[in-house]
Amino acid sequence: MQFDVIFDHNDFLIAYKPVGVSFHSEDSPGFVVMLEAQLNVKLFPVHRLDKVTSGLIVLAKHKAAAAKLTALFESRQIDKFYLALIDAKPKKKQGWVKGDMAKSRRGAFKLLKSNENPAVTRFYSQTIEPGIRAVILKPFSGKTHQLRVALKSLGAPIIGDELYAGSLADRTYLHAYNLQFRWDGISIDCKASPVEGELFKRFLSSEVFNDWQQPTNLEW
Length: 220
Prior knowledge:
This protein has helices at about 30-40, 65-75, 145-155, 200-205, 205-210, and strands at about 5-10, 10-15, 45, 55-60, 80-85, 95-100, 100-105, 110, 120-130, 130-140, 175-185, 185-190.
């Protein structure tokens, strides 16, 4: 399997992780190991994507860059924007989802009403065809399964996300679309549209996707 490198810098690269590929090695080599072999370079992970999520990953090329990128993530200076598709009407069409998260059953998490160390997500949604809504999300924290839990808590789990009671589909319709940050005074703005999934292909031809191609035009 060959992976696409979307942006290449002396200190880091941004690559596309396909849906269904584990980030870390499990029973077989994971995304990072396979990409290292493909490029013949040592890479240092600074964030991750779930196996069921496709999209952009930034990987450092040396320890100093990894430390700097980690600091940028921790201080919320790297903006991440995700696309998702849902087929149930959410409790609200846009706004914030905030709350602590706790482990639930079968490796899932649930959103709590408390806010001691909350997961924070802002989102917008819009109908793209009868029965299907597109969602653009920006996480303001970095919790495991945060976006999947946020949409589940709104009564509209992501299509294909069986762990969170999403409708059966050919994939989980969650995609890391856009990464934006500054590096040594230079603005990095990297986008990659989803390439897997029939519903995403229909979404990419919609007016909604056209409106969302520059996420910062929305109020976050």
